[in-house]
Design goal:
This protein is an alpha+beta fold. The protein has 15 helices and 22 strands.
Length: 492
């Protein structure tokens, strides 16, 4: 599996060059789901991260290759192992014209620590303003990947209320209008510190169905479509092309450990693991993905090599069901987002039926699905999780016992394992990369033995693109508008 993924490269399929009219004034990006909020601190959702990264800047950022580069901070240093000093860019302003100072950054990080994105900042124990353009972050223990975490925490003005009514950031685009469930309209920030973006007006439009997104692309109503099957773009006409790119997200099956029943049995979860046939699931559902045998892909730091499972093993799965006392199987409802329930859901149900598990798939629009997860309302669910280059993202947020502060902020199944908690916390304090990798791999071994999350596949990022648009996918799947331009290099 590892060698197969290693040779996957950017696939570009061109379907001719049918002339189209000169590009329109607004770039329309069709998304499979809506953002959860305009507040950068009130979510931990990949789609929302992608969209809002155009509105808010963080202290640092990821480039296309997932390397940390300067953001609002032009430089940083470590005076001690427990201190990070950041020097802010001069002359940066928020969308309403106010200058950005260290007080805004301090306020933003402290605000984030109280909200949904707190787990990214769990190492921070103090924030000190050194000057209007410099500040220091103090950690209780050394934290080698703090920069990776800071890259996803947007900076807002220091008077931003707990309930955000208006999106004000420093990013390359400002929000013009947001109609929840429909569209988010943006306009270029011409005074952006990184230079005025080539695309002057843009819209993220919600079109849930892949067929509908492809048809809108064929009609020229949208210009970039996210998460669309290759066959749908092939039918969209000559003026578009298809792009597929390896992604960071692994789609998993998750269990609610608060609910009594068979899914709390480790033998049952292991049986489900061995019943899954990732290659057949990908082939039969048409999802753009690669097989995976753990909860992160090989490109993420913390991946545990040598675990090629050789799934499925149905006899082993059936023996585990017998051992758990469920030889006759059981009924269960699997909650899934609407974007995958109709394609992936039936295949998962068929595969689990082979070991007696009778699955009813419930399709939910993304806001309803996300709310149900956050309220621990799903007994059995399928969700994708992307780590930003480091496995600690999923360990800290999803698999560590919730502590009411930072750890376990997205632990949708209320899972708790003291042995895993200790491994996660140990990895967070190790500075030497080789030793830290060993610690993360130990956490991975524990999680894959207990299987609170059961991996299905490593999702590729797929796009349909109007030939008038220059677009290069990112590994993290984010659509960064300032990296996009019209092919004739003109903008309106």
């Amino acid at each position: 599996m590892l060698s197969r993924l290693a040779v996957i490269c950017l696939a570009i399929v061109l379907f001719g060059c049918r002339p189209r009219a000169e590009h329109p004034g607004v770039l329309v990006v069709a998304m499979d789901q809506d953002i959860i909020t305009i507040d950068p601190h009130q979510h931990d959702d990949s789609v929302t991260h992608s969209v809002l990264s155009n509105v808010y800047d963080a202290l640092v950022a990821f480039d296309k290759d997932m390397q940390v580069v300067p953001g609002l901070a032009e430089s940083w240093s470590n005076p001690t192992d427990l201190t990070w000093r950041f020097k802010l860019r001069e002359g940066v302003t928020f969308h309403d014209g106010r200058p950005v100072t260290a007080r805004d950054v301090k306020y933003s990080l402290e605000r984030a620590l109280r909200l949904k994105s707190a787990h990214y900042l769990l190492a921070i124990r103090g924030i000190e303003i050194v000057s209007p353009s410099a500040l220091e972050l103090h950690t209780e223990v050394p934290h080698p990947v703090l920069l990776n975490k800071l890259a996803v925490v947007g900076i807002v003005p220091q008077d931003t209320p707990a309930s955000m009514g208006k999106a004000i950031g420093t990013g390359p685009y400002r929000v013009v209008e947001y109609a929840p469930g429909n569209a988010l309209s943006l306009a270029a920030n011409e005074g952006y510190w990184g230079g005025a973006p080539p695309i002057k007006k843009a819209m993220f439009k919600v079109i849930p169905g892949p067929v509908e997104r492809a048809k809108a692309l064929a009609r020229g109503e949208v210009h970039l479509v996210r998460e669309v099957p290759r066959r749908e773009v092939a039918d969209a006409g000559e003026g578009v092309r298809y792009l597929s790119y390896p992604g960071l997200a692994v789609v998993v099956l998750g269990v609610n450990f608060k609910v009594e029943g068979p899914l709390r049995s480790r033998e049952v979860r292991e049986a489900i693991y061995w019943a899954v046939d990732s290659e057949a699931l990908i082939r039969q559902s048409g999802v753009e993905a690669a097989p995976v045998d753990q909860i992160v892909p090989p490109t993420v730091f913390g991946f545990l090599p040598g675990r090629d499972a050789g799934r499925p093993r149905l006899e082993k799965a059936r023996e585990l069901m017998r051992k758990a006392g469920y030889e006759k199987g059981f009924d269960v409802t699997l909650d899934m987002p609407a974007s995958s329930a109709g394609t992936v859901g039936p295949v998962v149900a068929e595969q689990l039926s082979r070991i007696g598990i009778r699955v009813k798939v419930e399709s939910l629009d993304w806001p309803d699905f996300s709310a149900r997860l956050n309220n621990a309302g799903s007994r059995f669910f399928s969700v994708g999780w992307a780590c930003y280059g480091d496995a600690s993202d999923i360990f800290d947020a999803v698999l560590h016992t919730p502590d009411g502060a930072s750890y376990g902020a997205s632990n949708f199944g209320a899972y708790s394992n003291p042995e895993l908690d200790r491994a996660i916390e140990r990895a967070a304090t190790i500075l030497q990369p080789s030793l830290r990798l060993e610690a993360l791999q130990e956490a991975m071994r524990i999680s894959m033995e207990d299987l609170p999350l059961i991996p299905l596949y490593n999702r590729m990022r797929s796009y349909g693109v109007d030939n008038r648009v220059r677009f290069q996918p990112r590994q993290n799947g984010q659509v960064i508008l300032r990296e996009i331009s019209w092919s004739d290099s003109k903008s309106r």
